[in-house]
């Protein structure tokens, strides 16, 4: 199981980074969009991500989160720095002091530009390629469109539905918390005030997240924060969800059966997660003559 889940995590990250990294060329989305004009794309992404995650395993989860925060409209807008004409999304509430990994995308973009100038998209699962980059960012929508760690189940379902994603899509995509950590400020209220929580788990987290202070201290989402497996769902069944928005998925509600299924069937989770990632990656992409192919992921072309 360990080798399988580690491999799944790695190829997950490869697909995410290639989706998030600023994009493509003319035309519509296609799974073989770069077969001719950038055949080395996957090898470049693979190499940079391998070096990065080997050095800092936490970066896998950070890139996954970056993909999610951009792909409520997959156009690379989260990568843009502030300019005189617009305020970027990096300092919006859901991203400020928490979105990270931009330098990894820059490193990939630099190498891809050297090998395949003006072409970049993504593939690992059969991901449709050919996205172009937006020429602006939307600070207000970044604040309003993304769910928060305190969101309840109805809010989560509605926010994902607004993007064309089902309740099951939401539950399986929440499994992205199979890897990574959260800052104390986002789970403090849960471990100190909520009752639908395993007392032993709450005590463990309180040791590193007191009632006051330590807001930037990190807590793992589950017991295997560097391995992409179904332990996240097993924890939910045990009332060991780290965030309020995690535990609401299993709290006598509509998603209990889905959580139970994934908690006992890792293969089903991995399969459904891949399909949901592709579906989320297809939310509002720019194609054809819309947008541009950025030379630098951080700024629009001049």
From TrEMBL:
Binds 1 heme b (iron(II)-protoporphyrin IX) group per subunit. Disulfide bonds join 38-116, 71-74, 184-209. Its main location: secreted. Residues 1-27 form the signal peptide. Ca(2+) 1 binds at residues 70, 73, 75, 77, 89. Substrate binds at residue 147. It catalyses: 2 a phenolic donor + H2O2 = 2 a phenolic radical donor + 2 H2O. Keywords: Calcium, Disulfide bond, Glycoprotein, Heme, Hydrogen peroxide, Iron, Metal-binding, Oxidoreductase, Peroxidase, Secreted, Signal. One of its GO terms (molecular function) is heme binding. It is an enzyme of class 1 (oxidoreductase). Ca(2+) 2 binds at residues 222, 224, 229. Belongs to the peroxidase family. Classical plant (class III) peroxidase subfamily. Belongs to the peroxidase family. Ascorbate peroxidase subfamily. This is Peroxidase. It comes from Acer yangbiense.
């Amino acid at each position: 199981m360990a080798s399988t889940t580690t491999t799944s995590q790695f190829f997950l990250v490869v697909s995410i980074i290639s989706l998030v990294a600023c994009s493509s060329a003319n035309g519509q989305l296609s799974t073989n969009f770069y077969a001719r004009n950038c055949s080395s794309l996957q090898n470049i992404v693979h190499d940079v991500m391998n070096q990065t995650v080997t050095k800092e395993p936490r970066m896998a989860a950070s890139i996954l989160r970056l993909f999610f925060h951009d792909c409520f409209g997959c156009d690379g807008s989260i990568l843009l720095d502030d300019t005189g004409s617009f305020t970027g999304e990096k300092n919006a509430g859901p991203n400020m002091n928490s979105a990270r990994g931009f330098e990894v995308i820059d490193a990939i973009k630099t190498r891809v530009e050297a090998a395949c100038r003006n072409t970049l998209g993504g593939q690992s699962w059969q991901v449709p390629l050919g996205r172009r980059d937006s020429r602006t960012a939307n600070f207000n929508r970044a604040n309003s469109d993304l769910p928060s760690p305190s969101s309840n189940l109805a809010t989560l379902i509605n926010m994902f539905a607004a993007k064309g994603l089902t309740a099951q899509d939401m539950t399986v995509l929440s499994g992205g918390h199979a890897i990574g950590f959260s800052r104390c400020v986002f789970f403090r209220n849960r471990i100190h005030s909520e009752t639908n929580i395993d007392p032993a788990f709450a005590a463990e987290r309180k040791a590193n997240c007191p009632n006051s202070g330590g807001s930037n201290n990190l807590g793992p989402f589950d017991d295997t924060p560097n391995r992409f497996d179904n332990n996240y769902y097993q924890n939910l069944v045990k009332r060991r969800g780290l965030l309020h928005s995690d535990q609401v998925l299993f709290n006598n509600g509509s998603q209990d059966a889905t959580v139970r299924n994934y908690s006992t069937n890792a293969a089903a989770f991995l399969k459904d997660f891949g399909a949901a990632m592709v579906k989320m990656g297809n939310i509002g992409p720019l194609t054809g003559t819309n947008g541009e192919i950025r030379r630098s992921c951080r700024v629009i072309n001049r």
